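Backbones bend. Shown next:

***
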Amino acid sequence: MNSSAYLVFAILAIAQLGFCDEVNYKDCGSAIGSVNKVSVSGCNKDMSRCILKRNTNATVDIEFVANENSNALKSVVHGVVMDVPVPFDLPNDNACSNSGIECPISSGSTYSYLATLPVLKKYPRVTVDIKWELKKDGSDFVCILIPAKLQ
């Protein structure tokens, strides 16, 4: 195989690793934005819960329409177990930096927020709802619940 073929193969392999399928989710109070779709790597709509393997990363893509302008958005993630929210530490909680979104956000525009969540080995094997919020001044711009299972 020549070097061009290796390059094409490498690009396809890398693209497949980051591939996200649309998943089932529940809106949990998106007050300022409207969610169009949610995708998570390794999951699809045929799964009742996304299977997230510990000691790996999960990529989340949230497509939404802004219903008002915003100069900044903050990402907040919780795992909800038995109605108790447990915070997840994000490597980057600035939703306007390295996420596919550049602020300011304009009302009426569609955005695709992309983030990678480390699923740490120390997390217990548990059934959980992942609550992902994009916040503007403490209010939910977008709020979704993704049913998941940590393995």
Observations:
- DSSP finds one helix and ten strands in the chain.
- The longest helix spans residues 3-17.
- The beta strands are 20-22, 26-27, 33-41, 50-52, 56-66, 74-81, 84-88, 110-119, 127-136, 139-150.
